[in-house]
Write a structure and sequence with these properties.
Blueprint: H1 5-15, E1 19-23, H2 31-43, E2 47-52, H3 55-69, E3 73-76, E4 81-82, E5 88-92, H4 93-102, E6 110-115, H5 127-135, E7 142-147, H6 153-164, E8 168-172, E9 180-186, E10 189-191, H7 208-217, E11 223-226, H8 230-239, H9 248-264, H10 271-280, E12 284-287, H11 293-304, E13 310-313, E14 327-330, E15 334-337, E16 340-343, H12 346-353, E17 365-371, H13 378-386, H14 400-410, H15 422-426, H16 429-448, E18 452-453, E19 456-457, H17 459-464, H18 471-479, H19 482-485, H20 488-499, H21 513-535, H22 550-557, H23 562-565, H24 573-592, H25 598-611, H26 618-624
Parallel strand pairs: 1-7, 1-8, 2-5, 2-6, 3-5, 6-7, 9-17, 11-13, 11-14, 12-13, 14-17
Antiparallel strand pairs: 3-4, 9-10, 15-16, 18-19
Helix pairs in contact: 1-2, 4-5, 9-11, 18-21, 20-22, 20-24, 20-25, 24-25
Length: about 625
């Protein structure tokens, strides 16, 4: 293939043995650089690890690379483990970080680690995982970091160079191979320049049909329509159902493909798949995290077949998944960021906008912004689209498990590790002082709670260092013998509770006597932990277990069908699958701990076996795919 300038530059550096950071717009072709490393490494018998920020992207990369490289590709995520000894291993960044800290010797066969979406380092909840992965990277491994456009890439590169004492090259591409053209729907008129948009005293409401008619006249399909709410995605798709975008031949083709995919993924009798059929046969669909993972995959395949013309989707569709279209529409330019709704960040806007314009097919991509001037002013809109992308900022906040792993290796010398962080590299003195205080506070708490005694990890400490994210609540239950006393049902229920995060106004179901006892016990344990964290000024607090899925989990463990267990909870079906898979991951971490007893391990293996069936089985989804 003929490489672009920036691809050639990156590949030349790689061939010379350098680590490389690449900053380029979404859709520019960064994956081709990763494919070069994989091809060369396979030919020279060197191992490669490819990390991705979300499991859906890991799964897609596994399928894409497996079609190119066959049995040389393996995958290891929290709920999938296939061909683990393969020379090219795809994993989530969390799994890689855990390996770096827990079992660095297992990384000896791998010469390269590829971090896809490395700008995720500034994700408030999970960014520290990327930072720790880079801080503790084995010295023999080289790095390829693939990033969306970030203005401080040179600062980022200097940090990595400074902690590993090895040169690292940066490659920057600012142009997209397919340029973007921005249009605006405001007061139900379409403007092809933002300066043409005018505020009218008696402006009309933006109508979806008006915009879709405009796209149809301009041959703007296929189109990805981004919304910032699941219900909104479904409502808009249903609103559009009076349109039919397919001729008779296309309709026959899409129905045949949809039926065969539903049969392959065992979705034929699923109510949600049947409801989507009425939209699919008109070339319309929706896609969001509340849907069954297998149904989302079916929709993705329909989209790549070019038979779907309009897909209403939430922003996860933009993250790495290779689904380009001719046009992209933004329902609005504000979204919920953790605790409040605010204007879109420039980088998030372009992550989504970058799906417009198919390389080799379109000469330009079209991005339509539906403006409501009462919510987002013209000035704010200009800043979102034409402003500078945000710098990547460290979100360093070391977990209890990381501190325990570091203590095992460095004892109290673990604080000499903090100056290696990107946080230390880019922040001011008072911020550095606070980060160090937080690490010290966590260590003091771990010592007070006897995770560490006489300069060594106790049994509880050994247990906690394996269960990232839920260390204290599970370890305190472990120490008080709750886990040993629970049967398969209780273990499944507590695992689902520690991972579950309720949505606003989510209904809480009544619990059985046994489940109520588990809830009361764990909440008492949590309050004791929270009290100590408050005293040490540790933030954020450890996560409270939520028991909204207890009845559904118990019914599932008893062999009840999936559609019946949905009646036991007020949770979207895709979320139920996701949380059950997360519960399996937690149970596997407990099972992998050297501190867990033989009896507990055997009971956990049985719990995992019963949970991990039918639609919950992520490996089954990959195999059937």
């Amino acid at each position: 293939m003929e490489y672009d300038r920036f691809q050639k530059e990156a590949i030349e550096y790689i061939n010379q043995g350098y680590s490389v950071l690449v900053s380029a717009p979404t859709g520019a072709g960064k994956t081709a650089i990763a494919e070069h490393i994989i091809t060369e490494s396979i030919s020279t018998n060197q191992g490669v690890i490819y990390t991705a920020p979300i499991k859906a992207l890991s799964n897609q990369k596994f399928r894409d690379f497996q079609s190119q490289f066959g049995e040389r590709i393996g995958i290891l995520t929290g709920d999938v483990s296939m061909n683990q000894s393969a020379p090219v291993l795809i994993m989530t960044t969390e799994i890689f970080r855990n390996k770096v800290l827990d079992e660095p010797q297992s990384l000896a066969p791998y010469s390269w680690v590829i971090f896809d979406e490395i700008h995720y380092l500034d994700n408030p909840e999970r960014g520290t995982v990327w930072e720790e992965s880079l801080m503790f990277l084995p010295t023999h491994m080289k790095v390829l970091g693939l990033s969306a456009t970030i203005p401080n890439i040179n600062q980022f590169a200097q940090w990595i160079e400074s902690i590993h004492n090895k040169p690292l090259k940066t490659v920057i591409e600012e142009k997209r191979p397919v340029p973007l053209h921005f249009l605006f729907q405001c007061q139900n008129e379409i403007f092809n320049q933002i300066r043409a948009v005018k505020r009218m005293r008696h402006g009309r409401e933006n109508k979806l049909f008006r915009l879709i008619d405009y796209l149809r006249a301009k041959e703007g399909f296929p189109c990805i329509y981004f919304v910032f709410g699941r219900k909104r995605a479904e409502e808009l798709a249903k609103d559009l159902s009076s349109f039919n975008f397919l001729d008779a031949a296309q309709q026959t083709a899409i129905l045949s493909l949809y039926e065969s995919l539903c049969k392959r993924f065992d979705l034929t009798h699923e109510r949600s798949a049947q409801e989507l059929l009425t939209l699919v046969k008109k070339g319309i669909a929706f896609h969001h995290a509340g849907m069954l993972p297998t149904l989302k995959e079916v929709i993705e395949r329909l989209f790549t077949s070019k038979l779907l013309k309009v897909i209403f989707t939430t922003e996860t569709f933009a993250l790495g998944i290779n689904m380009p279209s001719r046009s992209v529409i933004f329902d609005g330019l504000r979204k919920f960021y953790g605790h409040y709704v605010r204007n879109l960040k420039n980088r998030d806007f372009y992550q989504m906008a970058g799906r417009a314009g198919r390389r080799g097919i379109d000469e330009e991509g079209f991005v339509y912004c539906r403006l409501n001037l009462a919510r987002t002013s013209l000035e704010e809109t200009k800043n979102i689209i034409y402003g500078e992308p945000e710098v990547v900022k460290s979100q360093f906040n070391t977990s209890y498990a990381t501190i325990l792993n570091l203590y095992e290796k460095y004892k109290d010398g673990l604080f000499t590790i903090y100056p290696l962080s990107f946080h230390y590299f880019q922040t001011k003195k008072h911020q550095q002082k606070e980060a160090l205080r937080l690490m010290e506070a966590k260590l003091k708490l771990l010592k007070e709670l006897r995770y560490i005694e006489r300069n060594a990890l106790t049994q509880k400490g050994l247990f906690a260092k394996s269960v990232y994210g839920y260390e204290l609540i599970l370890s305190e239950c472990y120490e008080q013998n709750l886990l040993e006393q629970l049967d398969e049902f209780g273990l499944g229920i507590i695992a689902a509770a520690v991972v579950f995060e309720p949505r606003k106004n989510q209904h809480f179901p009544g619990l059985s006597k046994a489940n109520r006892r588990i809830k009361i016990f764990t909440e008492e344990v949590f309050e004791q932990i929270k009290s100590k964290e408050r005293r040490y000024r540790i933030y954020p607090f450890s996560k409270l277990p939520y028991f909204h899925l207890s009845n559904a989990m118990e019914a599932w463990l008893r062999g009840t069908s999936f559609d019946k267990i949905l009646q036991c909870c007020d949770v979207d079906e895709g979320e139920v699958v996701r949380y059950f898979r997360m519960a399996i991951q937690v149970l596997r971490e407990i099972n992998d701990s050297k501190a867990s007893s033989y009896i507990l391990k055997e009971r956990i293996k049985e719990t995992i076996r019963v949970i991990n069936r039918d639609i919950v089985d992520a490996e089954k989804q990959l195999r059937e795919g």
